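User: quick one - fold this with sodium ion bound?
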Amino acid sequence: PLVTTKEMFRKAYDGGYAIGAFNVNNMEIVQGITEAAREVRAPMILQVSKGARAYANHTYLVKLVEAAVIECPEIPIALHLDHGPDFETCKSCIDGGFTSVMIDASSKPFAENIEITRKVVEYAHDHGVVVEAELGALAGIEDDVQVSAEESHYTHPEEVEEFVSKTGCDSLAIAIGTSHGAYKFTADQCTRNEKGELVPPPLRFDILDEVSKRLPGFPIVLHGSSSVPQEYVKMINENGGKMPDAVGIPEEQLRQAARLAVCKINIDSDLRLAMTGTIRQFFAEHPDKFDPREYLKPARANIKEMVKHKLIHVLGCDGK
Ligand code: G3H
Ligand code: 13P
Ligand code: ZN
Ligand code: NA
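Assistant: Sure. Structure tokens for the protein plus sodium ion:
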């Protein structure tokens, strides 16, 4: 059966690694991720956003993830609501088979964030479901909400103890410089390396440090943690796409965060890039083909390879 993230996070915290939380929207994405996790024997979180539920329908997604559990009984799998916007959405997922939900009231004032989060925690815990909450505001786009660089702000470490003790949440997403989407930083926020590639500003490990001192043993979550592999940006741009200056979080920094209190690392954009790059290239090379299985098969295979790489080299959760 699906599991919660409790045990996964405890082991990850103690073991100095992180669990991958991958967004799923269709069967090929679920299969690509699951095959990777199975091959390297990694526990994993499959997560579903409000937009994913609107696209694919709650029941289809739950059943796809349940199918992954049946096909792959040897690894622990959690089903998580990503960026739950309100109590009702969280309740619907708790009632509908999820083992973990995020309530994201991070754009609300502190007291209101506490109040909404606590309400979700009460309902979730009564039903054996765990809750992720968020403090701080990441830049970037999620669903239809676009947070500009100016509106974004880092987590204030002095708020975390009060927030966690008053809400009873099970894990906490913090803002230390990651950002949603494939354009995480503007060119003027970056420097350039010898190859002319953008080098983003480093994550604020000092804030992570301060937060984990104040919350010893408590699992921290990083959103917006795609690395935006330049091989896929190139594949997209060379096959009719146009994604200039797409840039992500360097893998070594995520690896470092995974060694520390970070127990869950969210990845979505990189899956989209792998899928889109592969399909664009396939279409360019085979203009005569029109069977979706023919282009979805290599897309799924490349998602699998990318996820395997992340599980081993970025998250460090293989064999756990
Ligand atoms: O944080 C946002 C995730 O990448 C989900 O994106 O809302 O477009 O499904 P979405
Ligand atoms: P990316 O856009 O960096 O993949 O982040 C995904 C995420 O945070 C999902 O909640
Ligand atoms: Zn997110
Ligand atoms: Na960790």
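One thing worth noting: The longest strand covers residues 77-84.
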